[in-house]
Structure formats: structure tokens, C-alpha cells
Design brief:
By secondary structure, chain A is mainly alpha-helical. Helices cover 31% and strands 6% of the residues of chain A. Among the domains of chain B are: 164-202 and 238-294 and 436-503, 3-Layer(bba) Sandwich (FAD/NAD(P)-binding domain); 298-432, FAD/NAD(P)-binding domain (3-Layer(bba) Sandwich), CATH 3.50.50.60; 514-637, Enolase-like, domain 1 (2-Layer Sandwich), CATH 3.30.390.30. In chain B, the strands form seven sheets. In chain B, strands 1, 2, 5, 6, 7, 8, 20 and 21 form an eight-stranded mixed β-sheet that branches. A five-stranded parallel β-sheet of chain B has the order 10-17-11-12-13. The chains are: A mainly alpha, B alpha/beta. Strand 2 (10-14) of chain A pairs parallel with strand 26 (537-542) of chain B, so a sheet runs across the interface. Chain A: Residues 101-154 are annotated as: Disordered.
């Protein structure tokens, strides 16, 4: 059984698992997925790529940022049957650039950049964060707990 | 002048009457003459104490001569002042050129003393009153008068520094780096110049008081890499040096980039001219500027007054060099005392306490509050936490007010106001941060009197083209009101927001930043919003199992630092644990739970106590800003009994 006590202005409630089993009666306000103030995910409501998404880590801002942006944009807007098939040149120039900075883009990163092409932010994170710690993605937002997914009303 | 005017005012009616009398009686000229000189300086006021015609002439001559004499004197004085001012200015500039570039690698204890030295050079550097702005050389002066060796520049040859940077970021910490990244992401080909007075590239500070101390690597002070609990290693630097481009190449870089100018301090900001001046005289113009100067650790006045021997054995803690120096001390000293019971003090105490287990080092922590984190946690929780800190091997002295510190018999003696005496070898002062607003005067920016720091609006803007982020920014939070936050995640969030706004976004501070603290491997919490122990709180607790420690949280989510797991957290809820939590005992065990901080019945702050990966829910509750009748119902949203 839960019990409650008061310590001056502070209230303390101890609860058992059973007490918390009933669904919550607290009401939360529905979120607006298009709220311009909110942090956006990888793809903005208008379909553009959010280059500032924490999930991308330093990919769009590093020395190979422009090559990465070109390659990924090409892929994102590609309407071909095999998505991104016309973007090979962009991807190879991106890889060329990345090879010049091995401590920024370790060679295993090639796998990660292809995983990105599937443009699923969740898998991106796990791919980039768990694979190689010195990869740029792990750099800033790995210690920044700011989540890149807005909590939509569930 | 004034007195004569007052006198004349009083005399004027007298004179008027007398003049009428005089006109009737010319023989009274002598009397009038006697009165006339009194009114000469304010002759314009009176109706003309006219005596005879001859007297008129004398009077006119006197006035004329005095007038000419006065004008001549004024011109001579002004010219002399101007000459003096110009020679002064040229002397100062040559003086600055002759002195070497200050290398700010001295220990912070010395830095504390240089702040006192500032007041002296300020007096001598101050030019004549014509100077409209206060002497910008003030900041440069300490570099000349401070007791550091006039070492050569850290760079071998004087580099061609850029004279213009489209994006200029003053300060090279977390907020600045986050802004740089944001700018580069949004403005293709952006050229970003970071100017920092530290010798290091941008790095993150939290590991300096936590993870770096738990490293098994003896060379950790050199590598600054730390092993996370799942075995993965990373550096405290945000990016390796190859990420950045050389400042000399910034202007010519085809795709732009981020360049960092180390060991350079911005001493003057010309807002009208859109340019700044560095301590070596270089001027850099900008289009958009970010001030992310952070702050300087505070020290106790009793220590600053205690003399050289005490100051030598006292350290402040903020930068990499502070970590290196304290790590060195911890290996040699027998006893270290930490003054301060907040985040930094408690974390350092726990870190040193753990190290002390092997070395036999005595770790003492003292503070004026009744318990650790006394200003953050409600009293019951603060007391519980203090017991945990003691278990980490720390001698905690609560309600301790330092009266004096002296050096005797090769030991520091700390005398407390209640009579207790503590003998120790070294003191670490963790008593707060003084936000760095050195540029406020020259830039004409507003400084907040309640919270300190530069006053900026909800979009972090101080003036057109000038933004402030991080510890130094006192900003308007739409939900929670005006505040200044000194946490890592806030630096990231505000830096990123400033970068967005510098590239045209015009977004207000909306995504609420969070913070976290670990006190040993068994107690950790994450918090968001206004977490002030003076607010009424409602805490909802379950009993902690072995699963509910920071260590367990990282092992489960398979990531490194606990805070990393936030970014992995997708909209899907975490997998519920199989084992049910045991029933609550009657003993007050605050193992895990949720604490709500209320202001006018609205939740403005939440602490997740040993409960992890729930920050998005907490953020949502604060964002809503609703009055909830039953906070237990709100607590249900957190599933505190699950993992």
C-alpha cells in the first residue's frame, strides 16, 4: 500500500508497483508535429532534410560536409527505381573526401554511410553510435542528451 | 560660479533699486562701482547696474578682459589634455606590441590574483576624460602585470590571422562548438572562426569531474580519453584537430570550415563597427557574432585574503589544466578538502573519495548547507545523498562556514565559524561560477543584475548580429521565465539555437535542456527545468533494486555515457523489465522515483531519481505547463517500477 508523508513544504509518496498499474489519469496536451519551435527529426515537415539533426552528428558540418550534403540530398530526392542509383558520383566523391580524414571518418564508417541511405533515424543512431566511438556522430550529441525525436502524443 | 550667481540673484533687486537711485545721483558712482564687480560674472542677468558713463567703459573693459582670458585658458587646457591623451594612447599601444602575447597556461590560483591586479593597471591605463568608452586596455593590462612568464607565442611564426570572419564565435567551449556545428549545417560553405583564450580546442567539461577520474589508464592526464562503462573509449575533445581548418586558410577555404584561434582573448568589441580587437591588437570584423565566454570559477574571500602560501595550495576547477593539476595533487597530498556542496564539489568529492580507497588519501568536503546538493534537492533527499557521499569515503562536514584559512607547520588550517578546525594539505574551492561579461562595457551590452551574465531575449539575441549562449547568457525562457543556466546540455541547446538564429531561424528557446549528476556508481539522477530546493516539492518513490543504478542503465542500453542513450531513445518505449520490483518497505529508502518542483501549482522542474531514459516525458510535462491535481497520476507516466 502506498503511503504519504509531509516534510515541511515537501510531500513524499511511496508507491508500490500495483498502485501504479492503473493507467494514468493525467492529461497531456496533444503535440503539434509541425510546431516550428520544436526540435525536428531528420526529415522536416516540408520534406526537406534537417541538416542540423543531432542524429547526423558532425557529418554535415565537417570538412566533407558539402560532399555529404550533396550525396545525401541526391539520394533523398531520387525518384529512380533503385533509389539513389544516379548518385554514385556524389557518394564516391564523398568517400574520397572522407578517406583524407581517417581519424574523423574511420574506414568502417563506409558501412555507416550506407546505412544512412536508408534514412531511418533510429537505425542511424545505433549504427553510428555503437560502431565507432571516434566517429563524428558520437562527438557532440553523444553527451548531449537532447533527443532528436519529438515526443508526439501517444 | 554658482555662488557668485546666487549672490548676484540676491543682489540684483538691490542693484536695480540702487541704479535708479544712482541715476538720480551721479555722485553715488563710488558706491555703484563697489557693487558692480560682484555682478560682473553674471552681468547678463541684471538689468544693468549702470553707473556713470566712465564706469560703464571700465566695466565693459573688465568684462571683456575676463571673457577673453577665460576662453584662452579653456583652449589651452583642452589642447594640453588632447596632447596628453594622444601620447598616452600611443605609449600604451607600443607597450602592448612590445610585450609578448599572454599565454594563459598559469594555474587558476594565479588567475584569481590577477583579477586583483586589474584594478591597478586600470587606473594607470585610463586615458583622460575625453575617452568616451572606458579603457579597452584594461583586459590587456593584466596580461602585462600578471606574474606569468612572458613566453613566446604558442605558434612558431606569427600567422596571418583573418581580418574578417563572417561568423565570429567568442569563446571556445561547448556552446561555441554547438553553434559552429549548427551554422555549418545550415549555411553551406560557412566560414566560422572561434576565438578562445584557452590553449585547447573545444572539449566537454563533465568528464573532468567524473569519468576521467574513474579511468584506469595512468596516462589519462595526457590522453584525456576515458573508458565508458561498456568499455568504449572516447576523447573529451568534441572533434580531433583534423576537423578544424587553420585560421590562415579560413578566408580562402572553398567550402568554408571551422577555425579555432587558441590563446587569444577578445578584449574590445566595437558594435557599431562590427569588429572586435584581440589582446595582441589584431582586429577582426564580423557579420554575425556569438558571445560564449562562459565564466570563471569564484573563490572564497577568506582564501584570497589568506596570503601566498594558502593561495598556492588552493585550486579552482573548470579547465583541463585544473584537472591535470588536481590529479597531480591527489597523488601527493595526504588530505584534500573541497569547499562547496553543489554539483562540482560533490562530484569531485566522490571521485576523489573513490581514488582515496586505494591511496589512503583523506577527502574532506565542507559546505554551509545541511546536506549535499542542499540548494537543489529537498531536505530529506539531500540528507540521504549526504549519507551516500560519506559511503564513497568522503568526510562530510555540513553547516560549515569558513572563518579563516592559514598556513602553519606545512599544513593548511581551516578555521570554521563554529570553532571547528580542519587541517589539510590542499583546498579545492567549488563555490560557484562568475559569468564572464568583460565585453559588456566596450560593446555596450546589458548585464543582468539578478542572475548575472549578458541579458538577451528569448531568441538569445543581445543586439542585431550579436547573440549570447551558454553559461554567460541570461535569457528569457518562454515557459519558465528569465534565467541563466550553467549546465552542459544547456550549452549545447543554447549554442545550437544561437547558431540556428545566426543563420536566420528566429526561433526562441523552447527545447528544454536537462542536466544530470552521478554521485558514485549507485546514485544518479537526471533533471530538467527549475530545480530549486526552496520550491515546494512532491516526490513519488519506489524502492530501488540492483537494476536501478546509472551503471545498469548504460549496460542495458549498450551505449557509453548514460546521457548518450537519450539520443538513441526513439518514440518507442523501452522494453519493460521482466523482474517485478519488490514491495516497498517501511524504511525510508529513496531508491528511485520522480520529484516534481512546483511553482504556483505548476510543475516547473522534475528530477528523475535513479530512473533513466524518461527525459522526453519530463520535458513534455514541463512544456505543457499545466496544473495537475494529482501528481501521483503524473508520476505513473514514468513507470518508475520498470527499468
Amino acid at each position: 500500500m502506498s503511503y504519504c508523508k509531509q516534510d515541511g513544504k515537501d510531500r513524499i509518496i511511496f508507491v508500490t508497483k500495483e498502485d501504479h498499474e492503473a493507467p494514468s489519469k493525467a492529461e497531456l496536451i496533444a503535440d503539434d508535429p509541425n510546431d516550428p519551435y520544436e526540435e525536428q527529426g531528420l526529415i522536416l515537415p516540408n520534406g526537406d532534410i534537417n541538416w542540423n539533426c543531432p542524429c547526423l552528428g558532425g557529418m554535415a558540418s565537417g570538412p566533407c560536409g558539402s560532399q555529404f550534403k550533396e550525396a545525401f540530398s541526391c539520394f533523398h530526392y531520387s525518384k529512380e527505381e533503385v533509389k539513389g542509383s544516379e548518385c554514385i558520383d556524389h557518394f564516391s566523391s564523398m568517400q574520397e573526401c572522407m578517406q583524407k580524414y581517417p581519424d574523423l571518418y574511420p574506414q568502417e564508417e563506409e558501412n555507416a554511410s550506407q546505412t544512412e541511405s536508408s534514412s531511418v533515424p533510429g537505425s542511424d543512431n545505433s549504427a553510428m553510435l555503437s560502431e565507432n566511438d571516434s566517429s563524428p556522430s558520437a562527438a557532440l550529441d553523444s553527451v548531449s542528451p537532447t533527443d532528436n525525436q519529438t515526443l508526439s502524443s501517444s | 560660479m554658482l555662488t557668485s550667481r546666487a549672490v548676484c540673484r540676491k543682489l540684483a533687486p538691490l542693484i536695480r533699486t540702487s541704479s535708479t537711485v544712482c541715476r538720480q545721483n551721479v555722485r553715488r558712482a563710488g558706491l555703484n562701482n563697489a557693487r558692480i564687480p560682484a555682478c560682473v560674472p553674471a552681468a547678463h542677468m541684471s538689468t544693468g547696474p549702470l553707473g556713470g558713463g566712465g564706469d560703464n567703459l571700465k566695466y565693459a573693459l573688465l568684462v571683456g578682459a575676463a571673457f577673453v582670458g577665460g576662453i584662452t585658458y579653456a583652449v589651452i587646457t583642452l589642447k594640453g589634455d588632447q596632447r596628453r591623451y594622444e601620447t598616452r594612447l600611443s605609449e600604451i599601444s607600443t607597450r602592448r606590441q612590445r610585450s609578448a602575447t599572454p599565454v594563459q597556461t598559469e594555474p587558476p590560483a594565479v588567475e584569481a590574483t590577477t583579477t586583483e591586479a586589474v584594478s591597478e593597471p586600470k587606473l594607470e591605463a585610463a586615458p583622460s576624460p575625453e575617452e568616451p568608452r572606458p579603457p579597452p586596455e584594461v583586459a590587456a593590462a593584466p596580461s602585462e602585470t600578471s606574474p606569468q612568464p612572458p613566453a613566446a607565442d604558442s605558434t612558431p611564426a606569427p600567422p596571418q590571422l583573418p581580418s574578417h570572419a563572417p561568423y565570429l564565435l567568442i569563446g571556445g567551449g561547448t556552446a561555441s562548438f554547438a553553434a559552429a556545428r549548427s551554422i555549418r549545417a545550415r549555411d553551406p560553405g560557412a566560414k566560422v572562426l572561434i576565438v578562445t583564450d584557452e590553449p585547447d580546442l573545444p572539449y566537454m567539461r563533465p568528464p573532468l569531474s567524473k569519468e576521467l577520474w574513474f579511468s584506469d589508464d595512468p596516462s589519462v592526464t595526457e590522453t584525456l580519453r576515458f573508458k565508458q562503462w561498456n568499455g568504449k573509449e572516447r576523447s573529451i575533445y568534441f572533434q580531433p584537430p583534423s576537423f578544424y581548418i587553420d585560421p590562415e586558410h579560413l578566408t580562402g577555404a572553398e567550402n568554408g570550415g571551422v577555425a579555432v584561434l587558441v590563446n587569444k582573448k577578445v578584449v574590445h568589441m566595437d558594435v557599431r563597427g562590427n569588429k572586435v580587437k584581440l589582446d595582441d591588437g589584431t582586429e577582426i570584423s564580423y557579420e554575425k557574432c556569438l558571445i560564449a565566454t562562459g565564466g570563471v570559477p569564484r573563490n572564497l574571500q577568506v582564501i584570497e585574503r589568506a596570503g601566498e602560501e594558502v593561495m598556492k595550495r588552493t585550486s579552482l576547477f573548470r579547465k583541463i589544466e585544473d584537472f591535470k593539476s588536481l590529479e597531480n595533487v591527489s597523488r601527493k597530498a595526504e588530505s584534500i578538502t573541497i569547499i562547496g556542496g553543489g554539483f562540482l564539489g560533490s562530484e569531485l568529492a566522490c571521485a576523489l573519495g573513490r581514488k582515496a580507497a586505494e591511496s589512503g588519501l583523506e577527502v574532506v568536503q565542507m559546505f554551509p548547507e545541511k546536506g549535499n546538493m542542499g540548494k537543489v534537492l529537498p531536505e530529506y533527499l539531500s540528507n540521504w545523498t549526504t549519507e551516500k557521499v560519506k559511503k564513497e569515503g568522503v568526510k562530510v562536514i555540513t553547516e560549515a562556514l569558513v572563518k579563516s584559512v592559514s598556513y602553519r607547520d606545512d599544513k593548511l588550517e581551516i578555521q570554521l565559524k563554529d570553532g571547528r578546525l580542519v587541517k589539510t594539505d590542499h583546498i579545492v574551492a567549488a563555490v560557484g561560477l562568475e559569468p564572464n561579461v568583460d565585453l559588456a562595457k566596450s560593446a555596450g551590452l546589458e548585464v543582468d543584475s539578478d542572475f548575472g551574465g549578458y541579458r538577451v531575449n528569448a531568441e538569445l539575441q543581445a543586439r542585431s548580429n550579436i547573440w549570447v549562449a551558454g553559461d554567460a547568457a541570461c535569457f528569457y525562457d518562454i515557459r519558465l521565465g528569465r534565467r541563466r543556466v550553467e549546465h552542459h546540455d544547456h550549452a549545447v541547446v543554447s549554442g545550437r539555437l544561437a547558431g540556428e538564429n545566426m543563420t536566420g531561424a528566429s526561433k526562441p528557446y523552447w527545447h528544454q535542456s536537462m542536466f544530470w549528476s552521478d554521485l558514485g556508481p549507485d546514485v544518479g539522477y537526471e533533471a530538467i527545468g527549475i530545480v530549486d530546493s526552496s520550491l515546494p516539492t512532491v516526490g513519488v518513490f519506489a524502492k530501488a533494486t540492483a537494476k536501478d543504478t546509472p551503471k545498469a542503465a548504460t549496460e542495458k542500453s549498450g551505449t557509453g555515457i548514460r546521457s548518450e542513450s537519450e539520443t538513441e531513445d526513439t518514440a518507442a518505449s523501452p522494453v519493460a523489465s521482466a523482474a517485478p520490483a519488490p514491495a516497498v518497505e517501511n524504511k525510508d529508502e529513496y531508491g528511485k522515483g520522480v520529484i516534481f518542483y512546483l511553482r504556483d501549482k505548476v510543475v516547473v522542474g522534475i528530477i528523475l531519481w535513479n530512473v533513466f531514459n524518461r527525459m522526453p516525458i519530463a520535458r513534455k510535462i514541463i512544456k505543457d505547463g499545466e496544473e495537475h491535481a494529482d501528481l501521483n497520476e503524473v508520476a505513473k507516466l514514468f513507470n518508475i517500477h520498470e527499468d
